[in-house]
Amino acid sequence: MPQTDTTLVNPQEGRNVVTPLNTNDLPTIEPDTNSGQYGVPVIDTSQVSSVVIGNLSYWSVCPGSRVSVPFTALGPFNPDNTFAVQLADASGNFITISQNVKSGPIQAIIPADKKGGHLYKIRVLSTSPVITSAEMPIRLLPLASARLETADGSTSSRIMPGQEAQLRVSFTGAAPWSFQLSDSSTVSQTLTNPYYFSVKPEKIQTYTLLGVANACGSGQTEGSVIVNVDANPEPRLALKDAEKGYRVCTNTPFQVAFNATGSYKAGNSFVVQLTDRNGEFQTISVADSLGPIMAKVPAGTPTGEYLLRVISSSPTLVSDSTKVVVAAPTIAFLQNDTIRLKEGGAAELTVRFQGGGPWFVLLSDGTYENNITTSPYTLKVTPYNTTSYRFTSAGGLCGVGTFTGQAYVSVDVPPSTIAMEKPSQTLICSGGEISVPFTTTGRFYAANKFIVQIADSTGRYVDLPTTGKESPLKVKVTPPYQGDTISVQRIRLVATAPAVASEPLELKVVAPDAAVGEVFGKSIIPGGGSTRIRLRFKNGLPPWSFTLSDGSTVQGTFLNPYFITVSPTTTTEFTISSLKNACGTGTSRGLAVVTVENKP
């Protein structure tokens, strides 16, 4: 019967099984700690928001199952921020598999249409600001499938009354498996693959599989076996699949399957025979009362084609013959070579084979190819770093053979550099924000951060609040010192892994509270008349906003000097009561006197 479901969360919904995932098979990039090009990472960095997903490396789950994804949110997030879970397949395409929530853990559902047996990735995404966590691998378990056949792979068997027929079930998908036969017998939670068992029908009977299941639910079945029961059949002897022949290696056991039907005398046995170089049949197995029989071509037998048959002793019967191709062990040669590549390029390594194929090779970097049928053969490799290639293993029809050779591929990696381009503004108020574009060459680690720095009064560079991972960066300019109303500040861009810096650029930074508004003059107007007052601004960046002592207000003017019309009813002294610009609150000085003459 199917295995009882086990779930990570909410066991009443979906199926979900957790099995260990070997994270040692996953590639990792270690930070460079030498003092050369990459140097020491910058450690004086400003804190930024981040999403840290929990450890999911032990997960193996079923398609359609519900999972609970833990995560930690670090740093500030906007009030409207939400989090969601995304899943990526082997092609790297991410889809959202959860609702948007305010906090974790997040309940997500693995889509039922995803195929088991593949490695997927999960990440957590925030919306405000938009941040993604690191990607964590999970493995989806495949559904079960089962095939029923006889122990030697055929679809029928003949026995005498009281004898047993040997059957087997071959599985795919995640273990353990449970299945039921058409005779109502059931096997639960087996880990054996293939699974062998015996049946003992009293009369001819057809066996099929009614169902198969594993932890991910019901799977597919195929195959059927007919077991014939004959009380006194005439003995017959025939090779199975004689037309297919055999490809074997010297001194290596192989299995010979045959059909022996009918009634044989007590003490009967079977042996396998092979022709020698003279065409005479020689026995190459021990006698056995049942098939299949294990045979072995003697060591030293020359490669080539031979004939094979099976004979019985009582009565003496001879099966039909089939062709046997005897192959030699594989010898693989990796062509000695030195190849230079630009970063991201591909190199072709030449391999030559001797002995029986098809062949397989496993290189020292993990590159694996099989079913190779041509020699010489070209292997394509794309090394990330300079690599020396050797064979870890190579072989062919006769298993692992001997191998030799070495190829050296040198990868030219350009040095890591940063070139800071002209910022969006070169004249800015202290505390203002600018955009800093930049370009890079070479490699930067996944953990790298780009940070804009500013020089202090001693020439030492300190971090500025920097937002973004790619060009352009958003930077809040807050100088560590301000020697004058407008000071020249030096900024540069640094990377943390590897630790490199750009050439510095200069900014002009206006100190806060630096704007000055001046108003002067005298004027005489008749009653009911109007006049204009002249205002002049110094030491600040436009636009300016100001309020006169009579309450008149002007917002955001770029005019300097600025003329404002006033219409007092009595003699009035006008001053600037408040002044602001992009650099903050300014100061004012002076006054303008407007005298009103009221004639009788």
Describe the secondary structure blueprint for this structure.
Elements: E1 50-53, E2 60-61, E3 66-69, E4 71-74, E5 83-88, E6 94-96, E7 106-109, E8 119-127, E9 130-132, E10 136-140, E11 145-150, E12 156-159, E13 165-172, E14 177-181, E15 186-190, E16 195-199, E17 205-214, E18 217-218, E19 220-222, E20 224-229, E21 236-239, E22 246-249, E23 254-256, E24 258-261, E25 270-275, E26 281-283, E27 293-295, E28 304-313, E29 316-318, E30 322-327, E31 331-342, E32 347-354, E33 359-363, E34 368-372, E35 377-381, E36 387-389, E37 391-396, E38 399-400, E39 402-412, E40 417-420, E41 427-429, E42 433-436, E43 438-441, E44 450-455, E45 461-463, E46 466-467, E47 473-476, E48 486-496, E49 499-501, E50 505-510, E51 516-519, E52 521-526, E53 531-538, E54 544-548, E55 553-557, E56 562-566, E57 572-574, E58 576-581, E59 584-585, E60 587-589, E61 592-597
Parallel strand pairs: 2-10, 11-19, 12-20, 22-30, 31-39, 41-50, 51-60, 52-61
Antiparallel strand pairs: 1-4, 3-7, 5-6, 5-8, 8-9, 8-10, 11-13, 13-16, 14-15, 14-17, 17-18, 17-20, 21-24, 23-27, 25-26, 25-28, 28-29, 28-30, 31-32, 32-35, 33-34, 33-37, 36-39, 37-38, 40-43, 42-47, 44-45, 44-48, 46-47, 48-49, 48-50, 51-53, 53-56, 54-55, 54-58, 57-61, 58-59
Structure explained in plain terms:
By secondary structure, the chain is mainly beta. Helices cover 0% and strands 51% of the residues. It is built from no helices and 61 strands. The strands form 16 sheets. Strands 2, 5, 6, 8, 9 and 10 form a six-stranded mixed beta sheet that branches. A hairpin with a 4-residue loop joins strand 33 and strand 34. It is elongated, with a radius of gyration of 42 Å.
